[in-house]
Amino acid sequence: MMVGKLKFCLLCLLTYHTVESLNALLSNRLRSTVPRGDALDKEIVKTAVPSMANLAVVPLVGAVDTFWVGRMSNAAAQAGQAAAGTSFFTAYFLVSFIPTITAPLVAKAAGAGDIKEAEKRVAEALWISTVLGFICTIALIVKPGLINSLVLRSDAEALPYANAYLQVRSMSMIAALISAIGFAAYRGILDTVTPLRVSLVANFANLVLDPLFIFQPIALGVVGAALATVTAEIGSAIIYIILLRRKKLLRPFQQLVSSPPSLSSIFVLLTSGATMLLRQALLNISFILATRKAQSINPFAGAAYGIIMQCYSLGVVIQIAIQGTAAAIVPTIRAKNGNLEARRVADRLFGFGSSVAILLSLAQLILLPRFAPFFSVVPQVQKAIIRPARLASLVQLTNGIIFAGEGIMLGISAFRALATITALGVTTMAAFLASPWAANQLDGVLLSILAFHIVQASGVLLHHLFFSPLASSTTIEKSPKSSSSSNY
């Protein structure tokens, strides 16, 4: 009897100490996320802010596209542009998994001082992306209706506009991939100012060309918006090629063509990217499901959804900058100073992401309903925006944890775990869209996206705290260097 009581007391004591240790661990980790204005914060800001500005330029120009197409007073044309934009990015993200993994690979090589290895990684990425981009371009030009049918019904009024837009926009696919690789390469060496300058030049060209191509003097309508984007993307790609050569991150064109990467190196890169391709495919499924549901309600809901997501994407690209910063800084610091210092940086990135998410959520909640008339002159579209816009601000709130966590997982090459978390989120979203809550109302579509994001945020946070090589239980033993060697 005494032995049984003793075992019970020991079990209670062990449980108490376990709970207390876990509470202390989480409290310490939570405190480490708070920005302090120290050298680490300055390094994060120096890397992230130019990326934020760079990435924010694209949806801002996209919003200008939406503005000019909205001046056509044609809800079907506006819905068609929104649907075709989703179709293009669905195809783009399917083949852009290589640029996604290029930044951490370049960062790892640059962190170790091996510029030749970084150059090799860039060359491999360019070769594979160009081939995939060419195949994708041909498919979109020949069969635009095939991918548009994923987001639009065959009898949708917006379908002819969507097909015409997508055929022209597809001609920017290879250029967009080259620009993405250039951006990733510069981010890998922690230079985010140069990509910002490239983006400003290219998107200013898009800004100027939009009204000229859509209205007078060329007057191509929706197709004009696509053509303006194609012109800007090609210009951006050319600039990146010149800059990468100057930075010695790209071989001369003759060597690049005459000395393609070996099949073994391509196989290794594709194998590493296969999991990311799966994840990207899952994300594309979620985009398609949400867009198709919104477009199936009516043209006004379809146009309203396009406007809401256009504005929402302004916040997303700012968070993507934090994701990219995490994907570059974490492997660089890990290579130089070990796991312990990398964990400290990763924790702080969660704090930055969450702080930015709160500000973005409040801004979207306050501003989007007031800006509805700016994006469409159709009263039904303006009315359809109001309530879903409020839900979109809640979705924005979850992005702080999601994108910081995803960037950290990319930086430590936790591709499989990231794909698994994404699969759980997409499954949750699909189930929600199929439920009565999402039946014939735009609110339900936004609620399904919110459910997806809650699963994503929970997954990346749990991975970081308990399963990552940077988790507290593994970091101290495995860290090759102490935090005293940190540059921060």
From TrEMBL:
<feature type="transmembrane region" description="Helical">
    <location>
        <begin position="349"/>
        <end position="371"/>
    </location>
</feature>
<dbReference type="GO" id="GO:0042910">
    <property type="term" value="F:xenobiotic transmembrane transporter activity"/>
</dbReference>
<feature type="transmembrane region" description="Helical">
    <location>
        <begin position="417"/>
        <end position="439"/>
    </location>
</feature>
<comment type="similarity">
    <text>Belongs to the multi antimicrobial extrusion (MATE) (TC 2.A.66.1) family.</text>
</comment>
<feature type="transmembrane region" description="Helical">
    <location>
        <begin position="162"/>
        <end position="186"/>
    </location>
</feature>
<protein>
    <recommendedName>
        <fullName>Polysaccharide biosynthesis protein C-terminal domain-containing protein</fullName>
    </recommendedName>
</protein>
<dbReference type="Pfam" id="PF01554">
    <property type="entry name" value="MatE"/>
</dbReference>
<keyword id="KW-0812">Transmembrane</keyword>
<dbReference type="InterPro" id="IPR044644">
    <property type="entry name" value="DinF-like"/>
</dbReference>
<keyword id="KW-1133">Transmembrane helix</keyword>
<feature type="transmembrane region" description="Helical">
    <location>
        <begin position="225"/>
        <end position="244"/>
    </location>
</feature>
<feature type="transmembrane region" description="Helical">
    <location>
        <begin position="122"/>
        <end position="142"/>
    </location>
</feature>
<keyword id="KW-0472">Membrane</keyword>
<keyword id="KW-0732">Signal</keyword>
<feature type="transmembrane region" description="Helical">
    <location>
        <begin position="391"/>
        <end position="410"/>
    </location>
</feature>
<dbReference type="GO" id="GO:0015297">
    <property type="term" value="F:antiporter activity"/>
</dbReference>
<dbReference type="GO" id="GO:0016020">
    <property type="term" value="C:membrane"/>
</dbReference>
<feature type="transmembrane region" description="Helical">
    <location>
        <begin position="302"/>
        <end position="329"/>
    </location>
</feature>
<feature type="transmembrane region" description="Helical">
    <location>
        <begin position="445"/>
        <end position="467"/>
    </location>
</feature>
<feature type="signal peptide">
    <location>
        <begin position="1"/>
        <end position="21"/>
    </location>
</feature>
<feature type="transmembrane region" description="Helical">
    <location>
        <begin position="89"/>
        <end position="110"/>
    </location>
</feature>
<dbReference type="InterPro" id="IPR002528">
    <property type="entry name" value="MATE_fam"/>
</dbReference>
